Predict the structure.
Amino acid sequence: KDTEARTKVKDSFEKERISSSILVNDPKRSKYLSLRLEGILNSAVNICVTYDPSKFGPFVIGRTSVPETGIYSVCCAIQNLWLSARAEGIGVGWVSILSNDDLKKILDIPEHVVPVAYLCLGNVSKFAEKPDLETVGWLPRLGLKDVVFYEKWNNADDPNWKQIREMIISNLDYA
């Protein structure tokens, strides 16, 4: 709720948005700069979700083999929050155009703690049929066959997988 902190986060967003815009040429740059990609000052609640690798000591099951497991667990928690919020009619936006260094300074986050997500939550009048970036033509939605494979990488044509994929598609209007 701290307006000063939110304003500083918004400033970080603006700085990062401008610096990343030089990576694309017009007309895509103009389109990028015109998109509403955050709700930092307007949303009811802002949450900075972090990961502290020092929690639970030096040995955490699974983290020795896959050190990123902690970050993945945080992302799963974010997804659970998102799904719960949606079920309650609350919109969630993930502001990814931010400097983690800025967030650490603004929010006094210890050096060893990793900011994973900056979320904006608030009531919405209705949920969009499609993701905003798909609607405005920034990127197309990838088909299920392009991102999920059966048994081996790039194996999208296996008859077993085809049957599973058809079942999924019949239950989703966008797969």
